[in-house]
């Protein structure tokens, strides 16, 4: 959340990105709507538009993450890609996630977890693919706003009988802003009225052109009802992942992102996480924002107890002191004492922010709300 883009800032203050861009241009700064604004630029703009902005040091918020950050070279290994599905309402995001989950995830081994698990992993050609099972722009933007760029590839679902709609365009904007590759799944191919060429033409007009037309985006026709095209979609994901050369170091301490979190009866707070780097193990002491604790148990997406979670992979963590917010970063720390201190700091920080809320819009808050 240290940074905010031109169009995001424009949205927050109810202006057009073009107004921001031309203001900056007159001040001698050349920007596009996807560029990040630095602290100085924001203060100048705030002045120009007569709004009050307080820049806060977002750093202290993520002290425990900062302490983690320098990466060991030489020990990197391939990791599973993390996928988010976005698209217009009713175009089939949930159906597609459900189809992939039920056709590819082994069931009947449930450890009795009753809550929805916000991410799952499937196997294909001896590789793993992680799907974040909380579709929609909110989850994606909320996580990005917290600086948790967990998604490697975005799949945009467009119904073949309905074509490009406002939320399709929004999804494209979000994926572009996050700078992640887009794969287009043209869904509902089983329908009589399916018109994939219409979808291809509409998207090409938006700069998303299929490879078969000389563009650089993979399009695949699918049906969440019949399963048509879904194996192909998984293969395209693996190809795209290969191009991205996704790597992490499984020998280090874990760093993860909270996808969702809730209170589970008999278990206390549980959180679905995706590990970004390192390996998370039972017994690790972790902190995730104001939540902290010793990992009492780890569960896979079916609720089965596991002992560790590798980079790119999802799971459920039991043992946190409280429910953690989606998008919060979770990091292993050296001791219970450190965990408690970080959590307390985070708590104080949020309280401080709450106190200043009534009079001022903080930069941090601006970015948290996009
Ligand atoms: P979401 O809002 O994007 O999550 O869309 P849903 O998954 O809830 O689907 C919206 C509606 O479209 C539901 O009635 C689904 O049954 C239907 N639907 C989704 N995928 C397909 C498909 O591939 N073929 C057909 N015929 N209907 C679909
Ligand atoms: Mg849905």
TrEMBL record:
Tell me which residues make up the Tr-type G domain.
Answer: 78-245
* Residues given in the record as GTP binding sites: 87-94, 133-137, 187-190
User: According to the UniProt record, where is the region G-domain?
Assistant: 81-229
Q: Please, which domain of life does this record's source organism belong to?
A: Bacteria
Compartment list:
Cytoplasm
This chain's function reads: One of the essential components for the initiation of protein synthesis. Protects formylmethionyl-tRNA from spontaneous hydrolysis and promotes its binding to the 30S ribosomal subunits. Also involved in the hydrolysis of GTP during the formation of the 70S ribosomal complex.
Family under the similarity heading: Belongs to the TRAFAC class translation factor GTPase superfamily. Classic translation factor GTPase family. IF-2 subfamily.
Q: What is this protein called?
A: Translation initiation factor IF-2
